Amino acid sequence: MRFSSDRFSYQRLWPAVVTIFLVGFGVRVATLHFAGFSAIHPEPINLAISLITNGTYANPFGAVTGPSAFCMPLHPLLCALLLHIFGSGPSGSQALSYAASTATSLAYALLPVLAVNCGLHLRVGAAAGLFGALLPINFWSQASGVFDAPYIFLAITVLLCITAKHLRGQMFTPAQGAACGLAAAIGALTNPCVLPMLGIWFACALIYFSERRIQLLRYMGVAALIVTAALMPWALRNKYQLGHFIFTRSAFGLNLHESNNSVATSDLEANVRNMNWRPLNPNTSKEERQKVRELGEVAYDRAKFDEAIVWIRHNPLRFLRLTLGRVALFWFPRMRRFWQTFVQAALMLLAIGGFIKLWKSCPVVDVFLASSCIAYSLAYIVIEVSPRYRFPIEGILLLLGSYFVWETASHRRGAPPTPRPKDGIESPEKAA
Question: How many domains, in total, are found in the chain?
């Protein structure tokens, strides 16, 4: 593995970051003006409209269904702020798209930072960021502004940058734990997928750095405390409004039922187009919205969870087929156009190659990146899959794929390996 000199890399880092951001934002703005702006109103936008009109998180399904914890609070709050300033017409749609494009472009621009913090060459991160900035394959997921995917992508990338530097330098002080916890808290308030990522990182770190277990426990304790403190106001609000402490979302039961039934497929887009599936979803069914209104969102979600469990018990083979289909579609998304599907598949294969090469030279960095992807994907083993659900971890896949190409090209040129620390881990003294 060819590790870069951190000092040299950081000196050249910020021009790459600025360039990638400007390229990414310019490509997305130009594409938006060519393709138009999204006018659909999914749950976060309905919640934002409720915040503007009523001052409450409520009515996520486009009708009066009552208080809600269907989405985490940060994305609807940002949408509400933008719609309040620019209105709910074309100007508001443009503002949402520009904000999402900014978040996506910034996340791609941070891939060189992530590469350097992982000990990889700056050019590996620059190539990954530039490719993502120039070729927005999954365009509407990252630029429409009505989905939370761009903000999850940015939150995860920032968290990875911070945590990678701590792991590689073995900097497990309470101050570093606070930085990790603050980034994780912002991510968790955007989407709870950050929480299993933290859990897997901490478990792997305890195994790999067993000799520093006490410092790690302090680091983890501070991070966990900050995340819990950040989620507590949301949980208290849900206790007051919904009658239950809900630290994340009240949507798992509904999502599980929509994904596992006699008419469902593994593909969310296919389900939405299926007229037999639509009566199951409150967004497209007046009867289901009435049930939400009568039962309340929490009781409705629990009832859907029970229905899903009963169906799964009675249809184990069908559930297994759906599960295998979801796993396949998550890692190898089926896009609308063949070339997009091909590029996504090629990216995944290159990322697998990068994972194998990185494992041979620096297992701790490899486990850190791979476990992030695996932890994020866990929910989509049992829940229907969409290409936009995978988008927040495409930065990691781009980084691994870029590393594979870089290492393969370097070996073919016969370039000698650069001296590196053992396993890519710096001693605490050197890191300081």
Answer: 1
- 80 falls within a domain: yes
For residue 327, pLDDT over 60 is answered with yes
Query: Do 220 and 228 touch, CB atoms closer than 8 A?
Result: no
Backbone dihedral region of 119: left (phi > 0), alpha (psi from -120 to 50 degrees) or beta?
left
The span from the CA of 67 to the CA of 135, in Å, is 40
Residue 429 has pLDDT above 50, yes or no: no
User: What is the structure's pLDDT at 40?
Assistant: 66
Please report whether residue 431 resides in a domain.
no
Q: Is 340 a member of any domain?
A: yes
3-state secondary structure the chain: CCCCCHHHHHHHHHHHHHHHHHHHHHHHHHHHHHHCCCCCCCHHHHHHHHHHHHCCCECCCCCCCCECCCCCCHHHHHHHHHHHHHCCCHHHHHHHHHHHHHHHHHHHHCHHHHHHHCCCCHHHHHHHHHHHHHCCCCHHHHHCCCCCHHHHHHHHHHHHHHHHHHHHHCCCCHHHHHHHHHHHHHHHHHCCCHHHHHHHHHHHHHHHCHHHHHHHHHHHHHHHHHHHHHHHHHHHHHHHHHCCCCCCCCCHHHHHHHHCCCCCCCEHHHHHHCCCCHHHCCCCCHHHHHHHHHHCHHHHHHHHHHHHHHHHHHCHHHHHHHHHHHHHHHHCCCCCCHHHHHHHHHHHHHHHHHHHHHHHHCHHHHHHHHHHHHHHHHHHHCCCECHHHHHHHHHHHHHHHHHHHHHHHHHHHCCCCCCCCHHHCCCHHHHC
Q: Name the more confident of 432 and 266.
A: 266
Q: What is the pLDDT of residue 426?
A: 47
Which two tokens mark 249? 């979302």
Amino acid, single-letter form, for residue 215: Q
pLDDT band at 13 (very low <50, low <70, confident <90, very high): confident
Q: What is the largest CA-CA distance in the chain?
A: 70
Residue 90 predicted with pLDDT over 80: yes
Neighbours of 15 (CB within 10 A): 11
- Give the structural domain span for 26: 6-402
Confidence band (pLDDT; 50, 70, 90) for 430? Answer: very low
Answer whether residue 427 is part of any domain. Answer: no
